[in-house]
Amino acid sequence: MSEQKQLFKVTIDNITVEVEPGTTILNAARKIGGEVAPPAMCYYSKLKDSGGKCRTCLVEVAQGSAADPRPMPKLVASCRTTVMDGMVVKNITSDRVIDARKGVVEFLLINHPLDCPVCDQAGECHLQDLSYEHGAGASRYEFKRRTFEKHNLGPYIQLHMTRCILCYRCVYTADQVSGERRHGILSRGDHAEIATYIEKSLDNDFIGNVIDVCPVGALTDKTFRFKNRVWFTKPVDAHCSCDKCSGNVQLWMRGDEVLRVTARKDEWGEVKEWICNTCRFERKKVSDWVIEGPSKIDRHSVISQGHYVGVQKPHETVAKVTGRKPKLLMNIKNVSEVNQVDLSELKGPATSDVFKQIKKEN
To answer: What is the pTM assigned to this prediction?
Structure first.
């Protein structure tokens, strides 16, 4: 008979769970789920050596283990601290943790620009969620904010370094997933930035995954920039036969148009399967995909506000109340020149200058 694996019992916010030795506190809390799991801006379970940089996952260890019940004097990063048998951890039940998390969020927002109204990451930004839960109403920072010049990373990826929080996720992704890293952290201290040393473009087959792992709007899709808001789109699961990746993706559609293609993500916002650049940037037609159905939105997000799965449509009562059938409204597409343009066919942002040029050509 095979020997049974030894499991450690760890109590997080008064909930006990059994995990294998070597498991981090963060992954043990994720096994419980819900608000017990600390937020993570830099840790990524599929990227080796990630974590330990943003400090948003700080927790209080009230009891080190059953053998040594002494508490740890300082808050620890749950993504870097492994559990011990009998450990007792406090997350949302600790006033120290809540106060420290508010301080960490304030530091992350010191140099972060207030451009959520024009940022393509708005609506699915982890920093937005974190600032909503732990951020202050106003900033105490009175000095000039850190800004950077824009770097050209190629035809598909847009870098806004001013929004970056230096989580290193994109660096690890390029190094471990694509196997061809051309960008990294340049300079030190307040001048540290993500960039390529001699303005090289990021063009290997899997480099587009850096967009999906970025927790803020520092790395965005140029083919989707300024075309739509994510909460106006409908996410659906789809697949295709691809010789480079699994072909399992998530399409973001507006009507019959495919505006964006991303990898599928789990409830923690992490990519399930990496996808190639061909699927992400070049296959923007419905005919390129086999639609499986609406995506299940696990993560709390504004995207789910108009996303109804398994809900029955109520019966129409207008005809019964008025005694006649309702008149059909005019289709604005028949009279609007702007709406007759397919946004998915535009190669760049959907700005007024682009529509003026299309009108001149027609």
So the answer is: 0.83
Beta-bridged to residue 258, according to DSSP, are 253
Question: Any idea which architecture 116-221 has in CATH?
Answer: 2-Layer Sandwich (3.30)
Residues of each domain in the chain carrying CATH 3.30.70.20: 116-221
Token pair for 244: 């480079």
Structure letter (DSSP) for residue 291: E
Print pLDDT tens along the chain (362 aa). 456 678 999 999 999 999 999 999 999 999 998 889 999 999 999 999 899 899 999 999 999 999 999 999 999 999 999 999 999 999 999 999 999 999 999 999 998 988 889 999 998 899 998 998 888 878 888 888 888 887 778 889 999 999 999 999 999 998 998 877 878 888 888 888 888 776 677 778 899 999 999 999 999 999 999 999 988 888 999 999 999 898 999 999 988 899 999 999 988 889 999 999 999 999 999 999 999 988 887 656 677 666 656 656 666 776 777 777 776 665 655 655 555 677 877 877 888 888 777 777 77
The CATH topology of domain 8-107 is Ubiquitin-like (UB roll) (3.10.20)
Helix (H) or strand (E) holding 20: none
Residue 220, classed as helix, strand or coil, is: strand
